């Protein structure tokens, strides 16, 4: 069942119980087409020649700075397996990018239109948000053959408020299946609370605790059709595996926090120069 407007009581119950819900047909084919075509243009215009060859040490330093500055930019991040031993891309840049972020929702009109739509705002208010703010957005490619693994994690680890308020919104732009790297989650795991945080310090980012071990049999796959929105509780344990198939798995991912009575942690990786505008329902 699709949704245009508020969540039903059954949907809210399922979200609170399982830690996620799937909203089918949340985005229209026209919205998906607009975002995918714009990303195709952005990739075509992206000059990656200056980032092809780095030593490991220098590349890490450059990546850190580039990563931090991406909070308010449209920045490009390569797959780990994109480069050969000679430092050059193994295949065309369009098939080498891991993701683009983290301010698509503010800068790019096609993404901004969807992210500021009334159905999107209504979804957040129906989840109990008082003053919701999109804190980051990403276009994730999950490239065929080299799309990297995303280890088990919680979104609140990276985007922490006191009290915790992060919700992940993951829109499938293409069908997501077990074969091409769909999301897997541990239903109900959000009830156990936050297990660790990523902290930004003077020397970069690090976690305050090691990654816990999880039994893979506890995860369930979330296979969805293009246009479906997966709503993810900030404390839900979720992951995705490598895409070893010949088919990509494009997605548009956003993270929202509440700014009403909630304090943004100053040691989060994102440090905005300008506070983002809250979402409203007209």
UniProtKB/TrEMBL annotation:
The keyword Hydrolase does not apply. Keywords: Iron, Metal-binding. This is Phytanoyl-CoA dioxygenase. InterPro entries: Phytyl_CoA_dOase-like. It comes from Quercus lobata. Its cofactor is Fe cation. It holds the Pfam family PhyH. GO terms for molecular function: metal ion binding; phytanoyl-CoA dioxygenase activity. The keyword Iron applies.
């Amino acid at each position: 069942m699709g949704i245009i407007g508020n969540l039903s009581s059954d949907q809210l119950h399922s979200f609170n119980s399982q830690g996620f819900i799937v909203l089918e047909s949340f985005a229209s084919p026209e919205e998906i087409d607009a975002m995918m075509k714009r990303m195709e243009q952005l990739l075509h215009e992206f000059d990656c020649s200056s980032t092809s060859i780095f030593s490991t040490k220098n590349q890490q330093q450059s990546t850190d700075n580039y990563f931090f500055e991406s909070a308010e930019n449209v920045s490009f991040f390569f797959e780990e397996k994109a480069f050969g031993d000679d430092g050059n891309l193994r295949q065309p840049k369009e098939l080498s990018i891991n993701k683009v972020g983290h301010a698509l929702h503010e800068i790019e009109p096609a993404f901004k239109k969807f992210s500021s739509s009334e159905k999107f705002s209504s979804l957040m208010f129906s989840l109990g948000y008082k003053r919701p703010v999109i804190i980051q957005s990403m276009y994730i490619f999950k490239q065929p053959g080299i799309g990297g693994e995303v280890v088990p994690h919680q979104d609140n680890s990276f985007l922490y408020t006191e009290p915790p308020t992060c919700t992940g919104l993951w829109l499938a732009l293409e069908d997501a299946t077990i074969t091409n790297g769909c999301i897997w989650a541990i239903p109900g795991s959000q009830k156990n609370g936050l297990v660790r945080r990523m902290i930004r310090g003077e020397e970069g980012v690090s976690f305050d605790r090691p990654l816990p071990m999880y039994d893979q049999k506890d995860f369930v796959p979330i296979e969805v059709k293009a246009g479906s929105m997966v709503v993810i509780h900030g404390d839900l344990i979720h992951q995705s595996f490598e895409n070893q198939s010949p088919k990509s798995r494009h997605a548009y991912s956003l993270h929202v926090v509440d700014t009403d009575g909630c304090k943004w942690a100053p040691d989060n990786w994102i440090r905005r120069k300008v506070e983002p505008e809250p979402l409203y329902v007209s």
